[in-house]
From TrEMBL, chains A, B:
Domain of life: Eukaryota
Membrane spanning stretches: none
GO terms, biological process: purine nucleoside catabolic process
Keywords recorded for this protein, A-Z: Metal-binding, Zinc
Entries under PANTHER family matching the protein: CMP_DCMP-TYPE DEAMINASE DOMAIN-CONTAINING PROTEIN (PTHR11079:SF161), CYTOSINE DEAMINASE FAMILY MEMBER (PTHR11079)
Protein name, per record: Similar to cytidine deaminase
Source organism of the structure: Cyanidioschyzon merolae (strain NIES-3377 / 10D) (Unicellular red alga)
InterPro entries: APOBEC/CMP_deaminase_Zn-bd, CMP_dCMP_dom, Cytidine_deaminase-like
Domain CMP/dCMP-type deaminase: start-end pairs: 28-150
CDD domains: nucleoside_deaminase (cd01285)
Keyword Protein transport among record annotations: no
Pfam families listed in its UniProt record: dCMP_cyt_deam_1
Zinc among keywords: yes
GO molecular function (one): zinc ion binding
Amino acid sequence: MSSSTNSHSGDEKACTIAPGQVLEASQATTEQLLRHAVELARQGVRKRAGGPFGAVIVRKLPASEHSGKQFVEILASGHNCVLKTQDPTAHAEMVVLREAAQRLKRRNLSDCELYTSCFPCAMCYGAIWWAKIPRFWYASRSEDAAGAGFDDARIYECLRGTGHADLRGEHVTIAEHHEPFEEYLDALKHGLSELY
Amino acid sequence: MSSSTNSHSGDEKACTIAPGQVLEASQATTEQLLRHAVELARQGVRKRAGGPFGAVIVRKLPASEHSGKQFVEILASGHNCVLKTQDPTAHAEMVVLREAAQRLKRRNLSDCELYTSCFPCAMCYGAIWWAKIPRFWYASRSEDAAGAGFDDARIYECLRGTGHADLRGEHVTIAEHHEPFEEYLDALKHGLSELY
């Protein structure tokens, strides 16, 4: 399912970004990582893997005691793979988030940062949130994506309660609907520290 | 990664809902599927697999020519597995969406419907959207989840532009940011029908 890729097409800029690599954090590094995300997006289109979106996720390493310099380690990089995998959730951000969590063997990625070729859709924004990533960088804005026909804006409109709600949710109350929450709260009382 | 489960704990109601099963569509079936989603949510808590959320996804079968009756086939069912898998994206809805797409070998699930124990978070709402599912049913409301400490509401606030934006996105313009979109639009002009 994951789609880490570090292969290079002939005409692209020299790029050595690969999982495991350590880079010094700087404005130049931020731009380098965003350029790499954009290059991955291009590669995804060329491979017909999915939409024109790429992402890179890094882990912030503890600052060097001697120099005070900050370094980041590349955890995962990839592009949209919806077409290649026929998984409608395989957006670039999802692909790298899942791969990074697998690599670190933990769901909490609060020491990580994400670089994406374009502002994330609502699904990916939510996923970044749940992974507890505090900050992400993006190169293209939602409006740029909309200009290429990607209708993230309509999801945002639905979530904002503006415009027509294309995706309808029907509320049906059943007697036992609250039981899972009660069971969860009870587990919390009995020593469970966190469960989601 | 998927977590289809049809096992039963001792005290639950008799339940025969399993992938592959065909049910006649009716109000009673809707409630039955929601009760099953709720039961899966309880099982998820008991197994310490993840948060108290469950979901079922069905495929609508063509209406019978003779009787005009509508039937649905169970494609996948599961619960939140974030803790079990250490995948921060493994919410119940994501788990069943991914499993259903894998089962059908296609990303377009527009002939499917989803039943979830609770109104989906922004990530899952977006995923349901991208899978082109036209309608979903839910048992508990976001407010019910919030009462148990699940802070989906804060994501929605960020997406709505209200309240404090806990998750910050930083926009950095790099010269080539629009190239993937151009490449995509060019591919569309040269015969590619759809790419995401």
